[in-house]
Amino acid sequence: MGDIQPATREAARPTAPGRRGAVVAALMLSMALAALDSTVVSTAVPQIVGDLGGFSVFSWLFSGYLLAVTVTLPVYGKLSDTFGRKPVLITGAALFLLGSLLCALAWNMGALIAFRVVQGLGGGALQGTVQTLAADLYPLKERPKIQSKLSTVWAVSAVAGPGLGGVLGAYADWRWIFLINLPIGAVALWLIVRHLHEPQRQSSPSGQKPPPRARGGSRVRTTRARATHGATRARARVDWAGALAVFACGGVLLTALVQGGVAWPWLSGPSLALFGTGLALAGLVVVIERRAAEPIIPGWVWRRRTIAAVNLALGALGLLMVAPTVFLPTYAQSVLGLGPVTAGFVLSVWTLSWPLSAALSQHVYRRIGFRDTALLGIGAATLILLAFPFLPYPGQAWQPALLMLLLGAALGLFQLPLLVGVQSTVGWSERGTTTASVLFCRQTGQTIGASVFGAVANGVLAARLGGAGDLDSVTRALAAETAPEAVRDAVASAVHAVYLGASCAAALAFLVLLCVAPRRFPVLTD
């Protein structure tokens, strides 16, 4: 039935809900810290710039954080497979809280950007390790429950974050945006330290390690844990040279993508220098990782069809998500003439259908399998994205809102089966690396999408307006109500072109799953 086939059994895990409740609460609080971060900060930018200055570089408040999160994901994934989830999660939470405290104490924009990078170094550990622990603590049949809870955290954060940031920025002080993280993070840390227990185990590069287990007042150990308790643990080998090379390569290439076409032209000296340096560092990463005993990015991540297909498909998901998250609010305000609050609602409706669809997807993939369920979801998403350019001009607000509601339902049916499925094809000692590779590809897809679709939108605007203007300047002109109707029509055309590109990304994900992914995932039975 579905993808569940006889295979190597995973180590037993506790199933009593009472023993996992405190750990699940800690995971949800940790995820909330990462999920709320960017949405809360975005609405307080005017207050931050008014206090600290630095308007010309404020975008690095987001870019710096994104870069740090993305490039650290594969490093933390490997470290969690080597040393366990608990120390990595505690380290990440502590770094995030330290960064939050330092951000609240920032004295100028440069310091705030640097401390946001510190936050991002912790955020990478939070995102990857929380998703890995969710799979560790629950058997395959129950994983949709915890994943739907984590999806709900993201949905609530997307809706509540901008409002919370606006209230704190307007009626308190923007520094409280960062200080509010401290009590939330402190509770999450206490729950993790108190209730998450990982039994001692012998380190082995190829051996499967038992998963962590929650405890409720007393230590819970399996027979295997008792057998290995007291045994001499092999000294863990960490590929620190590879970690540094991955960090440097990812940082340089992502900086080139984030700043290209924004801070400098694509074919300018800085852009070409960054891309050249990034490619050279990528070659260095390959050399180091081929020689390393325990590489940060092991070759099996791309040699196994299932993992490679999911990485590519979710990379395409990150690419297509840029269309609604970045360009739909501009469309709603500039073309439909909506206010910021109403425009935000048009976008946020997909956060209602996405978690619901994800929670219900288990009833589908248990019948037809992970791959076919994901194909159904991404196929529907392709058609929905293709429908956007056919919306009437200027149209009504309910029309794009309806498409977003349907898109959320389609993507919930696409993403969760792939994440649950790929985590279920590996054992404990490979799950952190696998989960991190999936999240890394999705984050990288979003970064590439922001650059590519930004260039597409600006190109369409320039063509429609006779070679003048870009999306940012046109949006400011529309906000001042000084632009003619032709400019609004040009913005609509630019956003339609972006959605057409997003539909191509969805179609690419469909083809990758159809041609690369096995029809039945090689799932390990619980």
Describe the structure.
A two-stranded antiparallel ribbon has the order 1-2. The protein is built from 20 helices and two strands. The two termini are 15 Å apart. 74% of the residues lie in helices and 1% in strands. It has helices at residues 17-42, 45-52, 60-83, 85-104, 109-137, 143-171, 176-179, 181-195, 223-228, 240-259, 269-291, 300-303, 305-334, 340-348, 350-368, 370-387, 398-423, 428-464, 471-479, 485-515; strands at 196-197, 213-214. Helix 3 (60-83) packs parallel to helix 5, helix 3 (60-83) packs antiparallel against helix 18 (428-464) and helix 14 crosses helix 17 (398-423). The model is unreliable at 6-12 and 202-234 (pLDDT under 50). By secondary structure, it is mainly α. The longest helix has 37 residues, at 428-464.
Q: What structural category arises from helix and sheet content? A: mainly alpha
- Strand runs, count: 2
Q: Uncertain regions: pLDDT < 50 for 5+ in a row?
A: 6-12, 202-234
Helix content: over 70%
Main pleated sheet: 2 strands, antiparallel
Q: Helix tally?
A: 20
Mean pLDDT: 79
Principal-axes shape call: globular
Rg (CA only):
23 Å
Classify the beta-strand content into a percent band: under 5%
Helix and strand string, N-terminal first? HHHHHHHHEEHHHHHHHHHHHH
From the N-terminal CA to the C-terminal CA, the straight-line distance is 15 Å
Strand order of the largest sheet: 1-2
